[in-house]
């Protein structure tokens, strides 16, 4: 009787849609992983680029929907999707000047929007909202294109770490979490879930580092350990950022296209923070660790 009661109480802590959430995550993980493998294993970047453009387009539509509706949302999303797709394609072609040019053009359009609204319609307008076009492009496609500048091993680490961090935080928080970590931003996030995400991400990054670079130096292994910590923290901050944005705008989910998750932006919010952090960890951190290690050699 006691055992049945305990099992019931544990089950009651897990939301009923958790299976949909896991299945959706696994399908996305498999699809993105296949695209990354086609790029790294067979040197076929177009599948990954196409996937990034598709993800960027859907996420931009959701993001701009936070701020605009109707025709303005369509116009804003259309501009963002075209410019964002150009950035991702230019990244594949290793054309940084095109990326800078597109960002400058987005700034130009945003500035004109503010100028004519202020001068012709409403002189109480503040400029912040008019730069949502630029902010959305930097937040989503500019960040996603970083994946094209990581090798297959690094892409696998980022994808696996982000996936594991989300699952660990979700289930540990549901089962054992009590004390909230940042209730004003995300009332469902707990310290237990956060610590579980940190430890699981640290383990995944370190183990993958050993598998892909078994003969690496001590400084390399230290870099993987530190990378696990930094990526875990970035993953949770990405989740907190979108939660704060939605709370300010009184929005529950970015959309309802993904069962158990809400919108696509709700699913990739962590990835949008782990990608730039991973780029730093894989390209800058090893040199820092080697330099510090040399001081004590």
UniProtKB/TrEMBL annotation:
Positions of transmembrane segments: 21-38, 44-64, 71-91, 97-119, 131-150, 156-178, 190-212, 271-289
Molecular function GO terms recorded: phosphatidate cytidylyltransferase activity
Subcellular location: Cell membrane
UniProt-listed InterPro entries: PC_trans (IPR000374)
Membrane topology classification: Multi-pass membrane protein
BP term (GO), one: CDP-diacylglycerol biosynthetic process
GO CC annotations, alphabetized: plasma membrane
Enzyme Commission number: 2.7.7.41
Catalytic activity: a 1,2-diacyl-sn-glycero-3-phosphate + CTP + H(+) = a CDP-1,2-diacyl-sn-glycerol + diphosphate
Main localization, broad class: membrane
Pathway noted in the entry: Lipid metabolism; Phospholipid metabolism; CDP-diacylglycerol biosynthesis; CDP-diacylglycerol from sn-glycerol 3-phosphate: step 3/3
Keywords, comma-separated and alphabetical: Cell membrane, Lipid biosynthesis, Lipid metabolism, Membrane, Nucleotidyltransferase, Phospholipid biosynthesis, Phospholipid metabolism, Transferase, Transmembrane, Transmembrane helix
Family indicated by similarity: Belongs to the CDS family.
Name by which UniProt lists this protein: Phosphatidate cytidylyltransferase
Source species of the chain: Desulfovibrio litoralis DSM 11393
């Amino acid at each position: 009787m006691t055992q049945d009661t305990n099992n019931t109480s544990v089950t009651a802590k897990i939301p009923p849609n958790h299976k949909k959430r896991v299945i959706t995550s696994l399908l996305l993980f498999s699809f993105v992983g296949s695209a990354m493998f086609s790029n790294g294993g067979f040197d076929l970047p177009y599948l990954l680029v196409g996937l990034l453009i598709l993800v960027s387009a859907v996420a931009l539509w959701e993001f701009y929907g936070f701020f605009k509706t109707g025709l303005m949302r369509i116009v804003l999303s259309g501009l963002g999707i075209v410019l964002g797709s150009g950035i991702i394609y230019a990244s594949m072609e290793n054309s940084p000047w095109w990326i800078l040019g597109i960002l400058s053009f987005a700034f130009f359009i945003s500035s004109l929007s503010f100028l004519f609204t202020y001068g012709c319609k409403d002189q109480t307008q503040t400029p912040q909202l008019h730069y949502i076009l630029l902010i959305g492009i930097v937040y989503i496609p500019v960040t996603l294109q970083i994946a094209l500048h990581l090798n297959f091993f690094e892409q696998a680490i980022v994808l696996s770490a982000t996936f594991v961090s989300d699952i660990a935080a979700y289930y540990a928080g549901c089962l054992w979490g009590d004390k909230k970590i940042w209730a004003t931003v995300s009332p469902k996030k707990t310290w237990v879930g956060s610590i579980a995400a940190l430890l699981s991400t640290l383990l995944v990054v370190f183990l993958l580092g050993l598998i892909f670079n078994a003969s690496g130096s001590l400084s390399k292994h230290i870099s993987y350990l530190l990378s696990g910590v930094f990526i875990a923290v970035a993953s949770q901050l990405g989740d907190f950022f979108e939660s704060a944005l939605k709370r300010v705008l009184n929005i529950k989910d970015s959309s309802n296209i993904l069962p158990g998750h809400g919108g696509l932006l709700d699913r990739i919010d962590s990835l949008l923070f782990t990608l730039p952090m991973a780029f730093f960890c894989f390209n800058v951190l090893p040199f820092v660790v080697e330099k510090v290690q040399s001081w004590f050699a």
